[in-house]
Design goal:
There is one protein chain. This protein has about 525 residues and is mainly alpha-helical. Helix content is about 80%, strand content about 0%. The longest helix is centred in the last third of the chain and has 41 residues, at about 465-505.
């Protein structure tokens, strides 16, 4: 005789686990804040450190590039040495790099410190989610915990500019980095008490050679783009471009030879996977690049103080939030072949609005345009994860989600790097021959570098000369904004056509899991690379 014995339910989390979740949520919020908190500090930072436009872009985006480059290998390292151990090591590194960033004395030092912040951030992201899945075995509680984790990440994105603006009202630009120090100290003290340790030694040793090749190749290509935008074609960016392409080729060749590669190239045999990943990267590129330029507009063209600029950035974030939550809600009612292309068309309309911004008086138009861009791109950035994971075989879902997360981080960094470089190139070209008389050679060089430097220089000039300088440099900045917005609108329309063509025949089978998609699939799988 046999009896059916019901499986015992998984243990439910206690107060200790929920307190541990609070400890894990704080660094998660901090990582998101560090993606945007620096944007409002750029004018005061420029006045103090005097970076050129290329250095300024590196200061902003090297953090995101290195998070993207090291996210996958750090997940595997955490499985082998212990996820809590890696989290605590990363907390020490993040806190130390934050202090170095805050007290940097020149652009090179700040770029190096931001790079270390990115590597440390890459240790924190997969570790927090891996531990959440261990701490909350009950499916309902795990879903609530991951939802809370996602909420803190979104909250960090929202309050980043506002928190930075408030600090800049009373302190120097470096204060925006010191937010992380008490959070990391709290994690170091409470982590060993509230968080469990977890290892999975069956996970293959991460291929660090591949990781280094991919990061150096990517940074070399971006260096080439920035230098060409600044100075035109010359030997240095040409050599960097060749180095980047060679490393990219060697990286792909190495992935094909390895039994357990860092990036599973077999996933790209599915055309839907490759195109969906590309759309996610391009969507985050457009959103991040446009937000970066509009935040500069708020302070440098409109002349808002940091706190007011932070408050005016809230509608931009609201557009992203509504689009991100509204997309999954509509996916069960509207065909994906209509919903995602429709969102891209909406984002193109937002970019068209940015091309109509003509001066400081167009504040509402600039903010509305960027909010509409986020509203339109939100469904793609969220539902794109469902497309990517759904296109992969079940046994490759973790690797697919890891690539999706990396693609989102990479797209954000590329948006600032590429769109910022193009905008600065247009700025410099438009400004040629338009600067007023009465400027010294130093003032001319500074004004041609960045609008922030031009605003700083104007404070030392006679009022008539300062007024003419601000008028022409702000107009040239707007020309850069118009050019990148117009290119972005065309790209969004082309993406809409491609998405409509690709998704036309996906059918109900593909739509079903996407209707339930949110940030959770993308996030919860980051630990299982």
């Amino acid at each position: 005789m046999s009896f059916d014995v019901a499986a015992s339910p998984p243990p439910r989390a206690t107060r200790r686990q929920w307190l541990g979740l609070a400890v894990l949520a704080l660094p998660t919020m901090l990582i998101a804040m560090d993606l945007t908190v620096l944007h409002l500090a750029l004018p005061t930072l420029t006045a103090d450190l005097r970076p050129g436009n290329t250095e300024l872009l590196w200061i902003v985006d090297v953090y995101g590039f290195l998070i993207a480059g090291f996210l996958i290998p750090m997940g595997a390292i955490g499985d082998r040495i212990g996820r809590r151990r890696l989290l605590l090591i990363g907390a020490v590194g993040f806190g130390a790099a934050s202090v170095v960033s805050a007290f940097s004395v020149d652009p090179a030092m700040l770029i190096a410190a931001r790079a270390l912040l990115g590597i440390a951030g890459a240790t924190l992201m997969p570790s927090t989610l891996s531990l959440i899945r261990v701490m909350f075995p009950d499916p309902r509680q795990q879903g609530a915990a991951i939802g809370a984790w996602s909420g803190f990440f979104g909250l960090g994105t929202v309050i980043g500019p506002l928190a930075g603006g408030m600090l800049l009202e009373w302190f120097w630009w470096g204060s925006v980095f010191l937010i992380g120090v008490p959070v990391m100290l709290l994690l170091i003290v409470l982590g060993p008490v509230l968080l469990p340790e977890y290892r999975d030694r069956s996970v293959a040793r991460p291929d660090l050679i591949s990781a280094v090749m991919s990061v150096i190749g990517m940074l070399a290509l971006i260096f080439a783009v920035k230098r060409i935008a600044q100075d035109g074609l010359s030997p240095a960016p040409g050599i960097a471009a060749v180095l980047g392409l060679v490393l990219a080729t060697l990286f792909l060749s190495r992935q094909r030879r390895l039994d357990q590669p860092l990036v599973d190239l077999s996933l790209f045999r599915n055309r839907l996977f490759g195109i969906a990943l590309g759309m996610v990267v391009l969507a985050t590129l457009l959103a991040a690049g446009s937000q970066f330029l509009v935040l500069q507009y708020l302070q440098l063209v409109r002349g808002l103080p940091p706190v007011r600029a932070g408050l005016w950035s809230l509608p931009i974030t609201l557009g992203v939030v509504i689009g991100s939550f509204g997309g999954p809600a509509l996916a069960g009612r509207v065909r994906l072949s209509t919903l995602i292309p429709g969102g891209l068309v909406v984002s193109a309309l937002g970019m068209v609005l940015l091309t109509r911004v003509s001066g400081p008086s167009d504040l509402v138009l600039a903010v509305t345009g960027t909010a509409v861009i986020g509203l339109g791109l939100g469904p793609l950035t969220v539902l794109g994860t469902g497309l990517i994971v759904g296109a992969a075989p079940p046994e490759r879902a973790g690797a697919a989600s890891g690539l999706s997360a990396t693609g989102s981080e990479l797209g954000s960094a590329l948006g600032i790097a590429v769109i910022g470089s193009v905008a600065f190139a247009v700025y410099r070209a438009d400004l040629a021959g338009r600067l007023p008389e009465g400027l010294s050679a130093h003032d001319v060089h500074a004004a041609r570098d960045t609008l922030a430097a031009a605003v700083d220089v104007s404070r030392e000039l006679p009022a008539p000369v300062a007024a003419r300088l601000l008028a022409v440099t702000r107009d040239s900045f707007l020309q850069g904004l118009h050019t990148t917005a117009a290119v972005g609108a065309v790209l969004a329309v082309l993406l809409a056509v491609g998405a409509a063509t690709l998704l036309r025949d996906t059918g109900a089978a593909a739509a079903a899991p996407l209707a339930e998609a949110d940030d959770t699939p993308n996030s919860s799988e980051k630990a299982d690379h």
